[in-house]
Prior knowledge:
With about 45 residues, this protein is of the alpha+beta class. It has one domain. It contains one helix and three strands. It has one helix spanning about 10-15; strands spanning about 1-5, 20-25, 30-35. A hairpin with a 2-residue loop joins strand 2 and strand 3 (about 30-35). It is elongated. The termini are far apart.
Amino acid sequence: MARLTALPSIDIIHGFRGILDFYLWRGLPCVRSWPRMTKAQQT
Length: 43
């Protein structure tokens, strides 16, 4: 997670879709790597 001074424009956010996750946490703009889904191991 990294805190930002301001959220980037919507075009930049759409450009990073699937790579970076932009969000507000307690009113602070933040960015993190996109959550990865791991496959469950089958028994």
